[in-house]
Amino acid sequence: MFYVYILESETNKEHYIGYTADLKKRLVEHNNGLNFSTKRYMPWKLIYYEACIEKSDAERREKYLKTTQGGRLIKRRIKDYLYESRKI
User: Fold this and answer.
1) DSSP-based three-state secondary structure for 76
2) 14-24 confidence digits (pLDDT tens)
3) Is the pTM of this model over 0.85?
């Protein structure tokens, strides 16, 4: 399985979208500073993921979610989470 995931920084609420074959391992890598693009915003928490059987499907989905239209879609999918997390 391949996973498309969204992380949220616990320090500044930034979001990061990626894909991987090992979701648990990848989250540990992000939180240990092994990814240059996410290192400064540690720690991260997983807020959303989708599973795909084919790697190419996961890659395509990741690219789509990084577009403006994909961003709007994901905000609708996790609307309640985003609303509740902003109330704190």
Assistant:
1) helix
2) 999 999 999 99
3) yes
